[in-house]
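Usage

Read records sequentially. Each one opens with the input sequence:
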Amino acid sequence: EVLFPAMKPYRDIPINATQTNTTNK
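and closes with the structure output:
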C-alpha cells in the first residue's frame, strides 16, 4: 500500500511491504 517508507513510520509498515520497497529501490 505504502510506496515510500517515509510516508508512514517504519514500524507501521508491514515487513512484506518493506521488502517490496527495498526490492523496487
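Summary fields computed downstream for this record:
- The first helix runs from residue 15 to 24.
- The mean pLDDT is 60.
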